[in-house]
């Protein structure tokens, strides 16, 4: 989903300081003519060490200035290289995921007796993959997993509903059989489903119909609580009396292409 992010590396191989003069340099000093090596005016003894209390001569001062200049140049190069290296390993912050839009319909939990009727109408069985598009608190896929040993995919655009469904699945002991997707149902891939459950609205049913017919395998069962699919006639309809209202439940099967 290189060097660890946030760690800066100094370039290797650079030396900050030069080593002490070696034998060759001492030899070159020893080979200086005797006229230059003798006398306090030069400030240097015959073995190359400076006489106490003597002022530095022109040659020694220039050498020190050149050496200091080289040290400063090396340090500047190291600092510049470190800055470049750090820039190379800096990771730009990942773009924030696009914000999901507000839910299209008001949340209304499906009554428990209607959940049972929907699962029976779809003839859910072990091995089925049940998608609930707009799953709310997850009760349909949780019941499918617990009662029929099916797999479930809970899709909801509202993060609060997904959090609630996760907790309900945890309490029911079926979290290992359910995936939870905080997504827009129109952007969710549904090709692996063998059963799709809906409790949306008349308009959303018509809007999602092309997706269902285009992505689902032939033979996939689609069950909708309360709302039909316009001129796509259901192959079965049942009515359940619940909460003082008669609730229609529709079944379709994706045809062969």
Explain the overall architecture.
- The protein has 2 domains: 67 residues, no CATH class; 142 residues, Vaccinia Virus protein VP39 (Rossmann fold, 3-Layer(aba) Sandwich), CATH 3.40.50.150.
- By secondary structure, the chain is of the alpha/beta class.
- The radius of gyration is 40 Å and the shape is elongated.
- The longest helix has 32 residues.
- It is built from 7 helices and 7 strands; from the N terminus they run ααααβαβαββαβββ.
- Strand 6 and strand 7 form a beta hairpin.
- Helix 4 packs across helix 5.
- A 7-stranded mixed β-sheet has the order 3-2-1-4-5-7-6, with helices on one face.
- Helix content is 36%, strand content 15%.
Give a brief description.
This protein has 257 residues and is an alpha/beta fold. It folds into two domains: 23-89, no CATH class; 112-253, Rossmann fold.
């Amino acid at each position: 989903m290189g060097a660890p992010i946030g760690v800066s590396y100094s370039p290797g191989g650079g030396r900050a300081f030069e080593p002490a003069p070696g034998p060759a340099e001492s030899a070159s000093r020893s080979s200086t003519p005797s006229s230059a090596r003798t006398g306090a005016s030069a400030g240097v003894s015959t073995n190359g060490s400076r006489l106490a209390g003597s002022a530095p001569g022109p040659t020694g001062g220039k050498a020190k200035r050149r050496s200091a200049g080289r040290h400063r140049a090396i340090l500047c190069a190291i600092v510049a290289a470190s800055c470049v290296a750090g820039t190379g390993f800096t990771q730009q912050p990942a773009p924030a995921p696009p914000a999901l839009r507000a839910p299209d319909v008001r949340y209304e939990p499906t009554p428990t007796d209607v959940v049972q009727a929907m699962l029976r109408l779809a003839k859910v069985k072990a091995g089925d993959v049940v998608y609930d598009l707009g799953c709310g608190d997850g009760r349909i896929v949780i019941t499918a997993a617990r009662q029929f040993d099916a797999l479930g995919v809970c899709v909801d655009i509202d993060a609060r509903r997904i959090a609630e469904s996760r907790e309900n699945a945890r309490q029911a002991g079926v979290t290992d059989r359910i995936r939870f997707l905080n997504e827009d149902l129109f952007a969710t891939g549904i090709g692996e489903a063998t059963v799709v459950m809906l409790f949306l609205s008349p308009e959303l049913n018509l809007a999602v119909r092309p997706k269902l017919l285009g992505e689902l395998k032939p033979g996939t069962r689609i069950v909708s609580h309360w709302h039909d699919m316009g001129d796509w006639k259901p192959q079965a309809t049942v009515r359940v009396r619940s909460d003082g209202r008669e609730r229609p439940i529709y079944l379709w099967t994706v045809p062969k292409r």
